[in-house]
Amino acid sequence: MFRRPERTGGGWTGTGDLSLVDDTVKAQVKEATDIAETASRYLRLKKSGKGYAALCPFHREKTPSFHINTQGQYYHCFGCGKSGDVFSLVMEMEGLTFVEALAALAARAGIDIRKGRSDEEVEQARRIAGAKGSLYKMMGEADAFFRSMLFRDAGAEALKYARKRGFTGETLEKFGIGYAPASWEALREHLNRKGVNDKWLESAGRGSARISSSPS
User: Fold this and answer.
1) How many structural domains are present in the chain?
2) 129 lies in which domain range?
């Protein structure tokens, strides 16, 4: 388990010393962190092909459908459609924000992500990173939606075609292949249920003229 970062005054202390907007820092932390090792702190993993499988922590099940791809460093549940990287995994399991998850993982990896910045710069970075974290989470939810649609009635023909072309379950998982319905309305409703408003949809380019013109 990870300790939630603590704030004092205008900055962060302990695992919360942040210089976290820089994508280079995020990449550095991700490179130093193994998603399977991190997941093993919460789940009982079993070797499955080139990755690992476990009972999904996000829904009830008796047969493991939660898979960890060690090559791509991401997880995906074929039961509920949840997917993401090591940051979103820690966010979900610990109830942390993106900022807190990044700080916790950095601390565990022994990476100093503050880099001598002032408290004011760190605070500004925290606000921006918080917005970026929301955007990453929204994109992850959209990705999970498209993947899950491939295994529902709406994506039956697409899945049949993929199977016909020789795509295995492992291939579909590895490359994150999903199915996008003709209408954006289903995605919009899904993301709205997840707490994502239309403003965020437009910001991420997932919106459409129909979404933009819909009442708030």
Assistant:
1) 1
2) 10-137
Task: Look at residue 99 in the predicted model and tell me its pLDDT.
Answer: 80
Dump pLDDT digits (tens) for 119-177.
666 566 666 666 666 666 777 788 888 888 898 898 899 999 999 999 988 888 878 88
Tell me if 54 sits within 8 A of 158, measured CB to CB: no
CATH number of residue 89's parent domain: 3.90.580.10
Taking the CA atoms of 106, 80, 136 and 8 in sequence, report the sign of the dihedral they define.
negative
Residue with tokens 């199915």: 179
Could you tell me if residue 95 is inside a domain? Answer: yes
CB atoms under 10 Å from CB of 169, counted, come to: 13
| Confidence band for 24, pLDDT divided at 50, 70 and 90 | confident
149 contacts 155 by C-beta, under 8 angstroms = yes
- Please check whether residue 98 lies inside any domain of the structure: yes
Give the C-alpha separation, 105 to 203, whole Å. Answer: 28
Given a contact cutoff of 8 angstroms between Cβ atoms, the answer to whether 128 and 26 are in contact is no
- Which residue, chain included where needed, has tokens 């965020």? 200
**73 in a structural domain:** yes
